Structures are given as C-alpha cells and as structure tokens.
Predict the structure.
Amino acid sequence: MRRFFFIFLSFILLFSFILPSFAQATIPVEKSKEQVDSEETQLDWIDIEEAKNWLIEEEAPELFQHLEEINWDELEVDFIEEEVDWNSIPIEINEEISTSEIQPLFWGIVARLVLSGGKHVIKWGSKIFKKAPTSKVTNALAKFTTGTFKTGSHTFKLTKTDMKHMLTRHHPKYWDGTVKASQTFYNPNLSVNDVKKIALTIAKQNSSTLSKKGTNATFQVEGTVNGIKYVMGITKGHIKQLYPK
C-alpha cells in the first residue's frame, strides 16, 4: 500500500512540472501590431484589397528593393475583350497641332509596369501602385457628368462608362490590374476631372477632323496637353480611348 502511495505521489509531481510547459506550448500568443507588420511580405501588401492602393518608398523601402523590370518579349498579356481593335485603326494626323512643346519623358516621372514578387505593379517615382478594388473607381465616378463636344452638326460624348474604361486601364489609382503589351499610364496626380478636360481639349484641337469624320466613324487622333502627347480613340460618337503616347 505504501509503495502504491509513493508511485501515485511521484506521478502527481511529474505531471505538475509537465502541464505548465505543455499549456504554454499550445496556447497561441497574441502578436503585437509591430510584429505582424514586420512579418508581412511584399506579396501580402499586393494581395490585400484596399482603397489606398499605393505606398511611398518611405513606408516600405524593402518593396522598392525587390522591384524587377519586365521582359516585354515574355510578357503574359491579359485577354481583354475590346469593342474596337484599336491597333488596326489609323491615327488621323493634324499638322496644325504643334509638337514643339512636348516634354521628354524619363523613367523617373513616367508611370510604368514592373514586377514585385512576380506580380505586376505600377511604379511612378517614389510610389508603387497595385490593383485597385472596383469600388474605388465606382466611388470616384459617383458624381461624374457626361462631357460633350460639339463641332459642325455633330456632338461627341464622354460618358461615365467611357471614363471608367480609361481610368481602369490607364490611371494608377484606379487600375484594375489588366496588362497589355503597349500599356501606358497617366500621371497619378490627375483627377477624374483633369482626365475629362484633357479629352475635351484634344477633341477641340482636332475639331476639323471630328467634324469631317462624324459620329458614325471609328478613328483615332492625337493631341498635346501640358507637354504630354495623347492618343484619343473615337467610335460611334463616343470618346472611348485616351492614353499618353
């Protein structure tokens, strides 16, 4: 009986030493925000869907150390269903538009596609932009009103749908993540209204061409605003395309 008592007591003492260690190993320890932030990778940031889809270099310097240039010969282009095959549409050249004020473009001030962890992002100076959620462009266009340009007997329109197409393809803050081989981007500081004004300014610069072509034709024109040359595509009386050349 005494022997059994000593064995039982030894078992109790041994269990009292093991239990705290076991509990400490199995109960998860809550991490601080700083620990969580330090463990996040650049892929985590790219994959998180949020309205503020950009970071400056001071916020995440490690991201800028891992950016890679794109090999355009091996670029996997997203299939994008276009209403018009713009590559087959010639650009109507307006000799009256002066090109002497066009500013040279350098990598430092041009928004361009690069790779971060194998995924496409847009780099512009000390900022990088990832894919923006659809709600962002929807909210930005909530109060958008159709822009119109009249020349001769024709009226050309820039509707909310037209503008959405331009912003999600070419504006870093509203980019939907789609990739094309010859894709270019606006200055991210341009507002929606700025883009609208650029489109209508280029329409005015090409008023004679628009009047001649009318609202049943599909064509492209060029124009220059603030030293930047843009290509604008028009089909069925709608301004459907606008990108910096």
